[in-house]
Design goal:
The chain is α+β, with helices and mostly antiparallel strands. Helix content is 28%, strand content 18%. The protein is built from three helices and four strands. It has a four-stranded antiparallel sheet with strand order 1-2-3-4, covered by helices on one side. β3 and β4 form a beta hairpin. It starts with a helix and ends in a 16-residue tail after the last strand.
Length: 141
């Protein structure tokens, strides 16, 4: 038993190894580039760009369907492929929200904006009517 005690005592007298710490620089984040229009792509492939453009329009104060259409045209979407709902109701009140869409290769990019609901976007299959929005829309001129 004395021997075991001696070995333990010797081990206790030896300094513990000092752990080594290797400092490394924090990883640098690679910024994601802004999305771009893919003219030959589907609605789904252009959804991020659609949302990017519309978010910028909201940030710039857009509230009317015409302002959203203009922002989309300026961003490269085809005006002739767009639909938009009215900014005013049938009793001449401000609409709670406006919807707008772009038809791309038989698929639709659809956006909706309202002060209380914010901006929402999605990609859908074109309706049986050949349009993207349900109901009556305004001329996009």
């Amino acid at each position: 038993m004395g021997l075991a005690f001696t070995v333990a005592a010797c081990a206790a007298d030896e300094p513990a190894p000092i752990p080594t710490v290797t400092a490394s620089a924090p990883p640098t984040a690679i910024p994601n580039p802004d999305p771009t229009l893919r003219p030959d792509g589907s609605a789904l492939q252009n959804l991020d760009y659609f949302e990017f453009v519309l978010t910028a329009a909201v940030d710039d104060g857009a509230e009317s369907g015409g302002a959203f259409v203009d922002a989309l045209v300026e961003a490269g979407f085809e005006r002739s492929a767009m639909e938009v709902t009215a900014d005013r109701t049938t009793v001449n009140l401000d609409a709670d929200s406006v919807q707008f869409s772009v038809l791309i290769n038989d698929t639709c990019l659809v956006g909706q904006y309202g002060d209380d609901m914010g901006l929402h976007v999605a990609a859908f299959t074109v309706l049986a009517t050949g349009t993207c929005l349900v109901g009556e829309t305004e001329p996009v001129g």
